[in-house]
Amino acid sequence: MDQISLAVNGRTDIGQVREENEDSIRWHACADKPFAYIVVADGMGGYTGGATASKLAAETIQTHLDNLLKHTFIACSPEQQQLILRATLIDAINNANTALLNTKNRNPQLANMGTTLVVAVMWHNLLIVAHIGDSRAYLWNNYGLQRLTRDHSVVQEMLDSGQISPGQAKQSGVRNHITRALGVSASVEAEINSWKLTENALLLLCSDGLTEYLDDHAIERILATHRPALECVYRFIDDANKLGGRDNISAGILEYASRPLPRMHIEEQNITQRPRSPDVTVRKLQR
C-alpha cells in the first residue's frame, strides 16, 4: 500500500481588459484523508450574469463535494466509492443547472447567463473529471502532458470533422463559441471520465482565459520546470496577462504524490523458554 499526499492551490484574475471577473474557482484538500478537488467555472451572459452563474455553479458543486466523506462512503468498497463519486458529480451538476435556471426565472435581467464547468476529484489514486464547455483539465507526469478534456465548442467540432487545421483554429472568429453550458436548458450532459494514477503527477484545471494564450507546449514547459509546483498558478496567470489578458484567467493545480509505506521493522527477541515448533514460530512472525 502506498502513502498518498494531495495538495492544491488556485487563483483567479480579472485580466487586463474586463471590468468584472466572471470566473469562479474553488479548491480543497482534506487534512486527514486522501481527498481533494478543484472546480473552475467560466461565466457568460454579461458582467452580472456571468459572475452570478459561475459563482452559483461553483458553490453548488463545492457543497456536494464537501458533504461526500460521510461514514457510509468511507465504509464502502473501492468499487462502490467510485460509483458514489460519479453519482455525486452527476447530482451536483444537475442541481447546479437547476439552480441557474431558477435564478434566471426569478431575475429576467439574468436571462442570458450560463457557465462552463470543469471539476476534478481525487480519492486515493482515483481521479474523476467532469466538464461542460471549453474550460479544461490537463495531467502532467514524467511521460509528458495529457489533455483530459475535449472542448465542447464549435471550433472543436470543426477540427474533428477536418474543416479546419489546428493553426486555423487558433485564429478562428468562433473559437469562443461553446456548444454546451450550464444554465441554458432543462437538461445538461456533462462528460465524465476517470483514471487510476500510478505515479506522481500534476493536475491543472483552467478557464479559456489561460488557453487563449498558452498552448499545450507552453503549459507543459511550465508544469515541468516551475517549482514549487503549486505556484504554477501564479506563473500561468502572469504569463497570460503579459500576453494580453483579454479575458478573465483561472488556474487550479493539484499535486499528487505517492510513495511506498515504510516496511515494518521486526526486532528479533531472545527466546528463553522452550523452543516452539517451526510452524508456530512462522505464524507468530506473520501475525
TrEMBL record:
All residue ranges annotated as the PPM-type phosphatase domain in the record: 3-256
Name of one Pfam family that matches: PP2C_2
SMART domains: PP2C_SIG, PP2Cc
PANTHER family in UniProt: PROTEIN PHOSPHATASE 1L, PROTEIN PHOSPHATASE 2C
Name of this protein: Stp1/IreP family PP2C-type Ser/Thr phosphatase
Organism: Microbulbifer spongiae
